[in-house]
Amino acid sequence: MLRSLRAETAKLVRRPTAWLLLAITLVLSLLFTYVFPYAGYAGGTAGPNSDRTLPMLLPDRLVGNSLGGLPVFLGSILLILGVLVVGGEYGWGTWKTVLSQGPSRLEVYGGKLLTLAGAALVVVLSVFALGAVSSALIAGAESQQVHWPSLGDLLIGLGAGWLIASMWAMLGVVLAVACARWPCPSGWASCGCSRAEPARRDRRPTGRLGGAGAAGAARSQRGFSRRRSGP
After folding, report:
1. Measured on CA atoms in the order 141, 144, 147, 153, is the torsion positive or negative?
2. By C-alpha distance, which of 39, 63, 66 is closest to 53?
3. Angle formed by the axes of helices 2-13 and 105-141, nearest 10°
4. If DSSP codes are grouped into helix, strand and coil, which group holds residue 187?
5. Burial of 150 by CB count in 10 Å (0-12 exposed, 13-18 middle, 19+ buried)?
6. Positive or negative CA dihedral for 189, 195, 198, 203?
7. How far is CA 94 from the centre of its chain?
8. Quick one: angle between helices 105-141 and 75-91, nearest 10?
9. What would the pLDDT profile of 55-103 be if each residue is shown by its tens digit?
10. Cα 191 from Cα 170, distance rounded (Å)
11. What gap in Å lies between CA 161 and CA 158, rounded to an integer?
């Protein structure tokens, strides 16, 4: 299990798509949680509730602000990550190569799941760290006192965020396995669905050969019947 965990972690770290997904998550979280609300407040376009906008962006609201975007931004991105980590083995047809190295299928799946759980924790920690820096900068720019959440609230928030992120990643794993077992749109190559089209192409020549063989057998049978009925 430990060897599979190290191998899957190394594969994920070296995959540019994983870093791209992390960057997208951080950019979306920053824009919709801090940049757009603060821009509306600073520009005087926040509406009648403008006096409530600034307190919502200060460091004491770090936990709520960080968890607020998890179901919207981080959830969908971690679902994609789960599909890529597990579905890649089906789409690229590398299961035989992986299993020939010695580990069982259960060990490989265990390594993938643990890697996804670790990736979910890294993403949640990154979102919290970015939120802490952003809220501190806003408080400094507006000359507000900085009050951080208590350690207990922070740990509870991190734990809740990690569970939410892990749930979305595991849902991606379920979708990847389901796409590998049943037909799905051909565009979902990462789910392993690219195997369906070659299989259909392989069956067409077999059908033509089978039809030719059947026709030849029928002609031979008719010729044999005529010879038997002749003088």
Report:
1. negative
2. 39
3. 50
4. coil
5. exposed
6. negative
7. 19
8. 150
9. 889 999 999 999 987 777 788 899 999 888 887 777 666 666 767 776 7
10. 14
11. 5
Tokens for 117? Answer: 């759980």
Q: What is the dihedral of CA 35, 40, 44, 50, to 10 degrees?
A: -100
The SS3 of residue 46 is: coil
The CA–CA distances, whole Å, from 65 to 132, 137, 163 equal 10, 15, 17
Q: What is the CA radius of gyration of the chain?
A: 28
Answer yes or no: are the C-beta atoms of 157 and 167 closer than 8 Å.
no
Predicted confidence (pLDDT) per residue in 170-223, tens digit: 998 888 888 776 655 544 444 444 444 444 444 444 444 444 555 555 555 555
